[in-house]
Structures are given as C-alpha cells and as structure tokens.
Amino acid sequence: MAFEIFGFDVILDANLKPVLLEVNTLPSLSSSSELDKRIKTSLMCDAFNLTGVVPYKLLKKQEKDEKLFGHLKVYQTLGQMQQDAPITV
Predict the structure, then answer these.
(1) Are 27 and 5 in contact (CB under 8 A)?
(2) H or E stretch at 13
(3) Is 1 in the same domain as 42?
(4) What is the pLDDT at residue 53?
(5) Residue 45 shares a structural domain with residue 5
(6) Does residue 7 sit in the same domain as residue 46?
(7) Do both 4 and 41 map to the same domain?
(8) Number of folded domains in the chain?
C-alpha cells in the first residue's frame, strides 16, 4: 500500500472565490502553532483511516474482542461495525 499527501495553497478573492496558488508534492508536516498541530494531526489521522491502517491499541482491542466473542468480527475502521453472524440468545 502506498499513498501520497499533497498540499494545496489557496487564496480567496474579493468575492470569496477560491483561487489555487500552488500544489506542493511534499508539504511540511511540522507544526508552528497549536492550531497548525491540530490541523496536521487530524490530516494524518484521516489519511491513515482512509487507507485502512488501524492504530496498534485498536488492533489489540479488536483481536481481544474477536477472541472473547468468537463468532463476531468487529471492524472499527472508519467507525463502522460489521457482523459475520447474527447474535443468538
């Protein structure tokens, strides 16, 4: 799996119409402020979620849940749950 992140520099004109200034093929992911850090952290989380990368802690929890519930497979990628078999009581 491979993916690439592009940076788009945009400015708004007097009518609030966006105008593309440039596209960066290797945007900086360093943070110069708290707001910048929050934006770039969210960007990376979204990129990883879109590619199906599961955080280590979540992966371990998923493995534990599958061992406990056997017939259920819980997929938490992109916040969705899926069931392979109906729950019987």
Answers:
(1) yes
(2) none
(3) yes
(4) 78
(5) yes
(6) yes
(7) yes
(8) 2
Q: Report the run of H or E that residue 8 belongs to, with start and end.
A: strand 7-12
- C-alpha distances (whole Å) from 18 to each of 9, 13, 21, 37, 83 are 10, 6, 9, 24, 43
DSSP state letters, 14-79: TT--EEEEEEESS-----SSHHHHHHHHHHHHHHHHHHT---HHHHHHHHHHHHHHTT-----GGG
- What is the extent of the structural domain holding 88? 54-89
For the chain, give the percent of residues with pLDDT over 90: 28
Model confidence pLDDT, tens digit, residues 28-63: 888 889 999 999 988 888 888 888 877 667 667 777
